[in-house]
Write a structure and sequence with these properties.
mainly beta; Jelly Rolls; 5-stranded antiparallel β-sheet; 12 strands; elongated
Amino acid sequence: MGVTFISGVAPIVFIAGEHLFASNDAVKMLSNDNAPMRAKEITVGTSKKVQAVRTSFDLRQYNGQDGGYSVYGQIYKNGVAVGMMRSQTSTLYITYTEDIPCQSGDLIQIYLWRTVNGNWAECRNFRLYTIPNIGFPVASNTMV
């Protein structure tokens, strides 16, 4: 038995990495109570084959005072929660990052909510990162 290589290489696919792929950096504030609400959304482009993205966003609570109230943020894909639920009580931004499996055409979203009336959940710098995963030659088993 031997291994023969099919000519060429596997197509380039994009996986979670350190190269900025897409961003939505504007500040978004929501004051909804106890119910996650979509704050930001990025569509994964269809011109490239994507298997995963690294998501990153900044989250803080804002009430004009020193904090102490919880706000929440979570990554969703196509309207379904897929990321870790993040909780924040500080008025300083904290950056959260995680890798999310996806494919071209998926909607990657941030949902925000709060539990106390009078404060705001605030996010910014929603970014997706990838890196090209250049394939190796595809092998097939053949009889020699």
